[in-house]
Amino acid sequence: MDVPRENIHNVLKHAQQVEMLSEYHDYIFTSLDLHTVDLEEFQYGGTNISSFSIIDQLTEDYQEIMKDWYFSQHYVQKSSFSSYDRSNEILHPKV
After folding, report:
1. Of 17, 30, 37, 60, whose CB is crowded by the most CB atoms within 10 A?
2. 8 A C-beta contact, residue 34 and residue 63
3. pTM of whole model > 0.90?
4. Helix, strand, coil tally for the chain in percent (to 5)
5. 16-74 pLDDT, tens digit each
6. Where are the beta strands (DSSP E) in the chain?
């Protein structure tokens, strides 16, 4: 199925309502973001729901990149420039 990420849950909900989420149905989604959709309510229907991923999240390189990104987002100050005191600056218009 070629469905935008934000519509995946809704499409599966409709399929469930018309009994198309059973062990006799298989779905392949073209969205690379399927892993970000909460599919918990569809896990016991027996349907094979698959998609593709271009990133192997189990590699050490990926784990290191994500750890560095998380650290930079949560522990590093945003910018030393933002704490710069501008109260003594004089603004001169350019002519």
Report:
1. 37
2. no
3. no
4. 40, 10, 55
5. 999 999 999 999 999 988 988 999 999 888 999 999 888 888 899 989 998 998 888 87
6. 26-29, 48-51
| Region 5-22 average pLDDT | 94
User: Pick from 39, 35, 29: which is nearest to 9 by CA?
Assistant: 39
Instruction: Say if CB 27 and CB 49 are below 8 A apart.
Output: yes
Interatomic CA distance for residues 56 and 24, integer angstroms? 29
Q: How many angstroms separate the most distant Cα atoms in the chain? A: 75
* Structure tokens belonging to residue 57: 């999240």
CA atoms lying within 13 Å on the CB side of residue 15:
21
Residue 39 main-chain phi, psi, to 5 deg:
-105, 15
Q: Which residue has the higher pLDDT, 27 or 80?
A: 27
